[in-house]
Amino acid sequence: MDWIGASIDGLPYRVLLPAGYDPARSYPAILYLHQYMMGNDQDVLLHEVEGWFAAPWFRTKFPAIVVVPILDQRGNAGANFGGKRVKPVMEDAAVAAVQQAAKQYHGDSARIYVTGNSMGGMGAWDMLIHYNAQDGDKGRVFAAGLILAGRNGVADPEQAAQVLRGVPIWAIHGGRDHEVSAAWDRTMARLLEGAPGFRYTEDAALAHDVWHTWYERPEVWAWLFGQRAGG
């Protein structure tokens, strides 16, 4: 699989273009945020995500620009994408990466999405608070988000719910997750009950690793790519 290497603001990232990429077309772009320590070995990380983003069914049904920032946490174990702890955070650089790739490869500005699992799910929650396309206070970027096994350790849930009430989000958590508590997701599900576009799925059969089950389900991607900024 041909990944394109790039970096921005000190953060390396990789880009996977759609099969049969045509520069005359515009494509949705998706920012994928990996779990803790997975960025320490780029080959292992890319091999894992290829199981989803390079799968023939995905590339056939969902042609998209896939952007994967890589955090090498061996020398800086506290580095994160946002939402895990206050510092050090690479949130702004990761957002800049998907913006740079979307500009370079003709991404559709109304169809830019964020997804992540575990630590990446924490970053996805935080980016949707600050960079959602409706009322993000740092920028209007993401039309929707797909969040797996995440939480937010720095935001106030009541305030976050006010910001996110109109933002399409599908949060998925394992009912037996003892690594990242489902408490945040359950709280957001309660606060956002009845909000248009919000979904919460708690899979009672799974523990922390929900991604190897749910990222392989076409229906989650069909939902995500069906969202557009501004409706």
* Discrete helix count: 8
Q: Describe the oligomeric state of these chains in a short phrase.
A: single chain
Tally of strands? 8
The CATH topology is: Rossmann fold
Strand order of the largest sheet: 1-2-4-3-5-6-7-8
How helix-rich are the residues, as a percent range?
Answer: 25-40%
- The CATH architecture term is 3-Layer(aba) Sandwich
Structure description:
- This protein is α/β, with parallel strands linked by helices and 231 residues long.
- It has one domain (4-225): Alpha/Beta hydrolase fold, catalytic domain (Rossmann fold, 3-Layer(aba) Sandwich).
- 32% of the residues lie in helices and 22% in strands.
- Strands 1-2-4-3-5-6-7-8 form an eight-stranded mixed sheet, with helices on both faces.
- A hairpin with a 2-residue loop joins strand 1 (4-8) and strand 2 (11-16).
- Helix 5 (157-164) packs across helix 6 (183-191).
- The termini are far apart.
List the helices and strands and how they pair.
Blueprint: E1 4-8, E2 11-16, E3 27-33, H1 42-53, H2 56-61, E4 65-69, H3 91-104, E5 107-117, H4 119-131, E6 144-148, H5 157-164, E7 169-174, H6 183-191, E8 198-203, H7 211-214, H8 218-225
Helix pairs in contact: 5-6
What key phrases describe this protein's structure?
231 residues; Rossmann fold; 8 strands; 22% strand; globular
